[in-house]
Design goal:
This protein has about 240 residues and is an alpha/beta fold. It has one domain (about 10-235): Acetylglutamate kinase-like (Carbamate kinase, 3-Layer(aba) Sandwich), CATH 3.40.1160.10. Helix content is about 40%, strand content about 20%. It has helices at about 30-45, 60-65, 70-95, 115-125, 140-150, 185-190, 200-205, 220-230, and strands at about 10-15, 45-50, 100-105, 110-115, 130, 155-160, 165-170, 180, 185, 210-215, 235. Strands 4-3-5-2-1-6-10-11-9 form a nine-stranded mixed sheet, sandwiched between helices. Strands 7-8 form a two-stranded antiparallel ribbon. The chain is globular and about 50 Å long.
Length: about 240
């Protein structure tokens, strides 16, 4: 049997990751590809939880910057994450992966309300759990929700899926001399403002010694390599 480096993970996807090459919304082929990769690691015995952002549909900060009330804008952003979670659930169940969406905001006709012990039981039974609606509170990002849920379910790692193969000292798409870090401390990330995740989520991970692995999810097969510990990445610990 394949040896897993991480047996229980929290995979953090941005909403934009579901867009593919589309300018807005959800690109179904991209959704199917991500679902097939999650199905593959689930079949290996990896217990998988996901947090998906909502930026492909609505971003609270953008609404607030346009003059909306910040709390209202953030609540709209939370609802966008629920839409993405339901889309991912549908894609996963189409490839025979039992999946549960759990929301921080109660909406019983749509998904289960988040209860930590129930989430833990779902994971033990081999179901993929998608945590939606962030933390349920305004002013907190889905990065913070990912760190919080990862700690609550005792995940081995937070895997931050991006479009580049780790953390660089500057934007590698703009600077050919950008240098990738293999390893960073939480202190490095916070002090250098490297933008791995927001400061609140990094601080949560730092206080509880939860590692963050940053990798490129646009390369097919990288999610599997990440759980096996063979992917090119940056580890923050």
């Amino acid at each position: 049997m394949t040896e897993l480096r991480y047996k229980r993970i929290l995979l953090k996807l941005s909403g934009e990751a579901l867009m593919g090459n589309s300018p807005y919304g959800i690109d179904v082929p991209t959704l199917k590809q991500i679902a097939s990769e999650v199905a593959e690691i689930s079949a290996l015995g990896c217990q998988v939880a996901l947090v998906i952002g909502g930026g492909n549909i609505f971003r609270g900060l953008k609404g607030a910057s346009s003059g909306m009330d910040r709390t209202t804008a953030d609540q709209m952003g939370m609802l966008a994450t629920v839409m993405n979670a339901l889309a991912m659930q549908d894609a996963l169940e189409k490839v025979n992966v039992p999946t549960r969406v759990m929301t921080a905001l109660e909406m019983r006709n749509v998904a289960e309300t988040y209860i930590r012990r129930r989430a833990d039981r779902h994971l033990d039974k081999g179901r993929v759990v998608i945590f939606a609606a962030g933390t349920g509170n305004p002013y907190f990002t889905t990065d913070t929700a990912a760190a919080l849920r990862a700690l609550e379910i005792r995940a081995d790692v937070v895997m931050k899926a991006t479009k580049v193969d780790g953390v660089y000292d500057k934007d590698p798409k703009k600077h050919t001399d950008a240098v990738r870090f293999d390893h960073l401390t939480y202190h490095d990330v916070l002090n250098l403002d490297l933008g791995v995740m927001d400061a609140t989520s990094v601080s949560l991970c730092k206080e509880n010694k939860l590692p963050i692995l940053v990798f490129n999810m646009t390369v097919i097969g990288n999610i599997k390599k990440a759980v096996l510990g063979t992917v090119v990445s940056t580890v923050v610990s």
